[in-house]
Amino acid sequence: MNITIKDIAELAGVAKSTVSRYLNGGNVSEKTKEKIRKVIAETNYEPNSFAQSLKAKKTNFIGVIAPTLDSYVTSTVLMAIDEELRKRDYTTLIISTSKHVEREIESLISLSRQKVDGIILIATGVTEKHIETINSIQIPVLIVAQEVDQCNCIINDDYQAGYKMGQYIVGKGHLSVAYIGVTESDIAVGQRRKQGILDGLAEAGVSDIKTYISEFDLHDAAKVTNDMLENFTPTAIICATDTIAFGAMKTISKLGKKVPDDFSLTGFGGYNISEVIHPALTTIRFKNEATGVMAAETIIKMTEGYGVPELQVSGFEFVEGESVKSLKS
Amino acid sequence: MNITIKDIAELAGVAKSTVSRYLNGGNVSEKTKEKIRKVIAETNYEPNSFAQSLKAKKTNFIGVIAPTLDSYVTSTVLMAIDEELRKRDYTTLIISTSKHVEREIESLISLSRQKVDGIILIATGVTEKHIETINSIQIPVLIVAQEVDQCNCIINDDYQAGYKMGQYIVGKGHLSVAYIGVTESDIAVGQRRKQGILDGLAEAGVSDIKTYISEFDLHDAAKVTNDMLENFTPTAIICATDTIAFGAMKTISKLGKKVPDDFSLTGFGGYNISEVIHPALTTIRFKNEATGVMAAETIIKMTEGYGVPELQVSGFEFVEGESVKSLKS
DNA sequence: CGTTGAATTGGAACCGGTTCCTAAAATGTT
DNA sequence: AACATTTTAGGAACCGGTTCCAATTCAACG
């Protein structure tokens, strides 16, 4: 049904090895080249890349496992990875796990069956089981967004980013601060980012800090904020992500209060939507594109057997919006 | 280097055909089953799915070509497609073209080499060349978001959605309306949606309608809005997408005006971010998840040779926010 | 205990390419 | 024209699976 190299060979009256040589730029005389060229054009023949990689022992596939596609951060990183990999003649195989952790394991295994040359895992949390699976499949794995011992990782500089934000809030004269974070099972955001913020605040002597925990979604963040404000009235609310900040903002305006007049508010992430929202959110923008490019470069090096540093850190920039009020006179 | 079925066979002391039968649930005695099970467990053997599909003439891959990953609509549709395909044991191969149209053609060809079983093309515009390529590769292609003669398509009900919006605006008493649309080369959004809106407005006798054209991005929309307001002061601005509406909103607040007091504003799309923004945007929410599921179901039917309707229409719902003022007393 | 039929197993061919090796053809050299 | 050298072409084996077919084993039955 489908056209194969054998058909081309027969139609052109040559051996399939000759066709193969023609396709891969080997020694073929002009006369036979012409014959083959003609037949291929007529038949719309496309070589079966599965059969090719079977022999080549190299698929030029890189698998990327992402927790979701509909988050700004993930999709930006994915786009950058895809772009960079394409430039280098790799095909990106994106798998979304819809935030089901067990699917990350399944996906690692299923990608290993596809014999991808390498895997980039955009992680939210890495368990024992992950590490076990990573070790059992014989394929290089690069972890993005979480730090794991003995594994190659690319992470954001969460501690420094948090520290910077803490210092900024202190600098604006806030002494009573709430932090809405996420579960500590998330090392990067839940632990490092938080620690940076706390240290940044603490260094200048801010003591009245209360911390809360929210899910990553807007609605839960709104609820957590609401619960918090019943018992505690800070001057500034630092949120672990922009989405959480949006949730907080929603609750604040529902209560008839205003940002930044009643509460100063900050996030982390740097969604481009932030600039539309009024007031523009003060936040930290992580360099997601750079992370993606770095991830693509790194995984290729790994598949080629070159050594790469175990831990690489991607940068960020501070984005000053209008959501923080200065309490200094 | 990598473990193959041959290795398993030798280690277990059986023929490779027996191992294959074991893996695919054929007739194998308990005793041999046990031997093979043990060897596979020890070696972490994973069958090479390339070699499998080579013989099976079926890869269980479905390719999806998307213009970008970082748009709410695209990623929602993608997630739904992926989810549904996984349920049915297909692997989704997502390719992003970063809005380069020529890459859509390239991707069609490259997917045909991967011998995917079917292709879903999330399109922004379909040219002659597209159709030529679609016909030349021997693989079922389903087009999402654009309508093309002789091709299987799933589209939003843009005309009806536009009509509904037009009627709504008229119903609120607006007589002087601006429409910020997009290029007519986009049949769905640029032509159908616009026509629906114009018809919806015209039916009630609104005559003072001016139309403008913007790119799909926020910044251009802001600029277009700005230029428009120098010459024309409508009471309502209907935007072809939510993003364009956000751009318009940005300009409006920059000019010190307010929505909906000075201008009523509407969009199309139904981003979840819309509810955060104050005032909440009145918009049309297309059922993107349903579209994704429908796309997945349809492409599978197509690969299995079942007939499917050439054109399928996905639904929408009207979302009333706070961005439209009633001019009726 | 020999026969029969079903269950189990091994061997070989095949899927669609690539590559190695050798034979034939083309070209150059004296 | 005879020989050496380089190009070009074909045949066969291989990549890692699946599947068909024939051979063997096994249990049941008369």
Automatic annotation (TrEMBL), chains A, B:
CDD domains with a match to the protein in the record: HTH_LacI (cd01392), PBP1_TreR-like (cd01542)
A GO molecular-function descriptor: transcription cis-regulatory region binding
Domain HTH cro/C1-type positions: 2-39
Location of the HTH lacI-type domain: 3-56
InterPro entries: Cro/C1-type_HTH, HTH_LacI, Lambda_DNA-bd_dom_sf, Peripla_BP/Lac1_sug-bd_dom, Peripla_BP_I
Coiled coil: none
Keyword Transcription: yes
Keywords recorded for this protein, A-Z: DNA-binding, Transcription, Transcription regulation
UniProt entry tagged with the keyword DNA-binding: yes
Protein's name in the database: LacI family transcriptional regulator
Species of provenance: Cytobacillus oceanisediminis
